[in-house]
Amino acid sequence: TIRLDLSKMEPSSQFVSLRYECCSFIALMNCVICGYQGLVDGGENICSASWESVSMMLQLGGTVIGSARCKDFQTREGRMKAACNLVKLGITNLCVIGGDGSLTGANEFRTEWSGLLADLVRAGKISAEEAKKSSHLNIVGMVGSIDNDFCGTDMTIGTDSALHRIIEVVDAITTTAQSHQRTFILEVMGRHCGYLALVSALACGADWVFIPEMPPDEGWEDHLCRRLMDQRSRGSRLNVIIVAEGAISRDGKPITSDQIKKLVTDRLGFDTRTTILGHVQRGGTPSAFDRILGSRMGVEAVMALLEATPDTPACVVSLSGNQAVRLPLMECVQVTKDVTAAMAQGKFEDAIKLRGRSFENNWNTYKLLAHINPPDVKSNINVAVMNIGAPCAGMNAAVRSAVKMGIIQGHSMLAVHDGFDGLAHGQIEPITWTSVSGWTGIGGSMLGTKRTLPGKMMEEVSLNIAKYNIHALVIIGGFEAYVGGLELVQAREKYEEVCIPIVVIPATVSNNVPGSDFSIGADTALNTITSTCDRIKQSAAGTKRRVFIVETMGGYCGYLATMAGLAAGADAAYIFEEKFTIRDLEANVEHLLGKMKTTVKRGLILRNENCNSNYTTDFIFSLYSEEGKGVFDCRKNVLGHMQQGGTPTPFDRNFATKMGAKSVLWLTEKLKECYRHGRIFANTPDSACVLGMKKRALNFQPLADLKADTDFEHRIPKTQWWLKIRPIMKILAKYDIKLDTYEHANLEHVVNKTGSLKK
């Protein structure tokens, strides 16, 4: 089996972790230096790879084995040379990491494989016996592209890291823009795909975004100027415009950042600056999301190769929601080409749909928040927004989105300070469009948040709901938000005032809210832990023979410990959900003792704070220190509340923005259903729901229905999806485990919404 990086683009920030996982599956692995060129040239360009040789790649950006454009491979003669090199080495499996061009080339290589071997036999370059042993070639692709321009996957490897670079720049620019009351135009990459521009616009609350899939309507210049003036009239001190480098007008002409700057300066007289981010977006350390995505995709790719037969079509490993899926490679390539064709034909709505559900949802949310003005006629509906539980990054982005969407719907929005305490004591005030401007990038909770539940003060809560005429409630928070919502539902029998629609948006670093696979804030905490572990590993690698024990947050939920273990390359992660004994600890120590005999003389152990009441962090530290005496020494770190702080990651900002907007749209519809005899009365189970991501979609699930799947004692859901990917961490740490413990994907098919492809 061969590991091959074939990107025609510059390297993205997360090709490297893809090399990490396969070497622990198969004893003999090879990597190709410089992509197809290395395949054609052969020799030292195809070299063996070992577990040790890739063990420090995880946190590196770019591509360690190199990537190069190759004209030779585009000719049959070049492909014959590549085939000869593979046959001589007995290689019949290719794992291809690249864009649609590279993947198309790989499929063509596979299709003509038999013919290439026949030509090589006739030319006397390989024997008939060698041809027989290499009679078929298996291909599995993974998409590495910061543009996220490949259809069939929600996210390509490298995209999230690029978004991190963009948002870092946007946050820095926002400071100077506010100080000087300026308009900033940022040009980001995306020659044929506007994903980076679109998500960046959502994540920073940009006033306008230009993307190639949906050019602005005729007369956009007037519309843009009106919008910028409107924002200034509301008190905003800055304007942000995001432009994809491939942005075009309806007639196909380029829209450039300089053109927009001239428009804003000449018509409005605003102090305007332009920043072109360029290749900054490709560099830097890969994000936690990209490391985990790369690791999962790499494992799935090897599983697909191991299961492949001569009749198996070339597939690409993709991400759908939180699920790894396998899709026929050429179906995905065809849909990607269909997007380009749709744009060329002016079928821009089709282009948006062809990009996939995730892209379409992002576009619809952006349109609602950025291009629709609040109506002149009010709905006479009051919607209250509150934060519950511990603070986390992204809470403010969810509040901002909910408030703006509520105002767009004609509602009056109310802010409840300090959670249920504030609701009980009347800490309630109107919150306006301008009030939440700039909240997207602020960590913590601007509204204030407490863990107090409403049960013991339901009388006061119900009185204030009536006093302030609250018709619907948005609760943003962690497990306390879910339990508090349940208590409100249970109180409906006694207090008619709480018979209002309620929606709970999960927001907690612990990711332990029933009804959702992901919570707002967890990604930011995960990146904080991962970056800290990177520094710790660097220290351990420098001093040699050192093992670090790191304690993470999460309550009884092991999500952070597990995913940080994957992202940081940990040797073990102890969690409450997966019971362990002293014999397991002993086995882990023995594993590290063996590891110290290799060239990788460092260790990293993660421990969830409540994984075991007896095997505490101090106990594990003492045990490892004693048993490793003379071979390695130990250090411990308790990360603490730093995991709750910091500015939100692009993922958390985008996720929170979509969740906040969707929750208010749902409440608006639910209020119409619950309007009876001149008043709001909601007492059915489906009028109080958790809005959560489940597998591949955002769903509303009644609070009461989730009780059966909730462990209230330990404050975790009984079913947690991420437990199924824990075996990956053990595989990558070189433990000898059975592969059938990992749930892998089956081959699916691309669903094309425009009907140009069959399901």
From TrEMBL:
Molecular function, one GO term: metal ion binding
InterPro entries per record: 6-Pfructokinase_euk, ATP_PFK, Phosphofructokinase_CS, Phosphofructokinase_dom, PKF_sf
Pathway assigned in UniProt: Carbohydrate degradation; glycolysis; D-glyceraldehyde 3-phosphate and glycerone phosphate from D-glucose: step 3/4
Entry keyword annotation includes Lyase: no
GO terms for cellular component: 6-phosphofructokinase complex; membrane
Catalytic activity as recorded in UniProt: beta-D-fructose 6-phosphate + ATP = beta-D-fructose 1,6-bisphosphate + ADP + H(+)
One GO biological process term: fructose 1,6-bisphosphate metabolic process
Known cofactor(s): Mg(2+)
Keywords from the UniProt entry: Acetylation, Allosteric enzyme, ATP-binding, Cytoplasm, Glycolysis, Glycoprotein, Hydroxylation, Kinase, Magnesium, Metal-binding, Nucleotide-binding, Phosphoprotein, Transferase
PROSITE patterns: PHOSPHOFRUCTOKINASE (PS00433)
Domain Phosphofructokinase intervals: 32-304, 382-666
Enzyme Commission number: 2.7.1.11
Stored PANTHER family: ATP-DEPENDENT 6-PHOSPHOFRUCTOKINASE, MUSCLE TYPE, PHOSPHOFRUCTOKINASE
Family to which the UniProt record says this protein belongs: Belongs to the phosphofructokinase type A (PFKA) family. ATP-dependent PFK group I subfamily. Eukaryotic two domain clade "E" sub-subfamily.
Protein name as annotated: 6-phosphofructokinase
Species whose genome carries this gene: Oryzias sinensis (Chinese medaka)
Lineage, highest ranks first: Eukaryota, Metazoa, Chordata, Craniata, Vertebrata
